[in-house]
Amino acid sequence: MATRPDLPNPAQADALAGWLAGPRGRLLRRVHIARRRSVLEIGCGHGSVTGDLARRCDGTVFCVDRDIVPATPRKDTSAVLLGADAARLPFTDSAFDLIFCENVLMWVADLDSVAREAVRVLEPGGAIVAIEPDYGGTIEHPAEISLRDVWIDGLTRAGADPCVGRRLPGLLESLGLRVWVELLGVPQPATPEATALLSDLPLTDDERARARQASGAIRRAGGVWETFVHVPYFMIVADRQTG
């Protein structure tokens, strides 16, 4: 198991960011990122999304992660990189007009505290954009590649909330934000690379055997859509109203 199961290796992180590039771009255009002056990325990891944010916005991107070391890959050197706890951000109130996170909130230990802290540093008129999965709604075909329960159990043991997506809209609304939600509803052909991400999780021997069997079945598939997996993603925009 990886030291940080929330942080895949750079190649895997880049591949996941690439898969979400289209939906992410639509959300960022919805919040008019080109007009934003101060953007905060929570949980930047290897910086797989940081460069995209920096290219799109007209201001400065600050990116935080709990573990920042000199070897942390930098995708965009114009961004300000800081080591910080998302539940105790080192910024003043109303410091940002856009806050972004992707595949991050599922890993925080205290989601309520992180959400409140994000609202604290968000200025009136600003927006939070969150892209988070909900493994509880996973659809897989055929049965021999089904790993839904393996993902849920492995993520839970690793300290994640595999169904965080469904919790977020109500939580953000309870904090006074106006929330818009869209579900990413496009199934994807199954790939062995996706099952490889399970290797970072604390699985039982039986679960690892099931992952290997599923990967083998995917490799043996004759057509692109003979095997497919759909993990629904909650695409969330939460606005802080003025006045």
Q: What would you say this structure looks like, in words?
A:
With 243 residues, the protein is an alpha/beta fold. It has 8 helices and 10 strands. It has one domain: Rossmann fold. It has a 7-stranded mixed beta sheet, with helices on both faces. It is elongated and about 55 Å long.
Distance between the termini: 48 Å
Task: Kindly report the CATH topology.
Answer: Rossmann fold
Helical segment count = 8
Write the H/E string, N to C: HHEHEEEHEEHHEEHHEE
Return Rg in Å: 18 Å
In total, the number of strands is 10
Proportion of residues in helical segments: 25-40%
Structural class: alpha/beta
Envelope shape: elongated
Please, how many domains? 1
Q: Beta-strand level of the residues, as a percent range?
A: 15-25%
Largest sheet properties: 7 strands, mixed
CATH architecture descriptor text: 3-Layer(aba) Sandwich
CATH homologous superfamily placement: Vaccinia Virus protein VP39
Model regions low in confidence, pLDDT < 50 over at least 5 residues: none
Strand order of the largest sheet: 3-2-1-4-5-10-7
Mean pLDDT equals 92
How is the topology of this model organized?
Blueprint: H1 10-19, H2 21-30, E1 38-42, H3 50-56, E2 60-65, E3 80-83, E4 96-102, H4 111-120, E5 122-133, E6 139-141, H5 148-157, H6 164-174, E7 178-184, E8 188-189, H7 192-196, H8 205-220, E9 228-230, E10 233-239
Parallel strand pairs: 1-2, 1-4, 2-3, 4-5
Antiparallel strand pairs: 5-10, 6-9, 7-10, 8-9
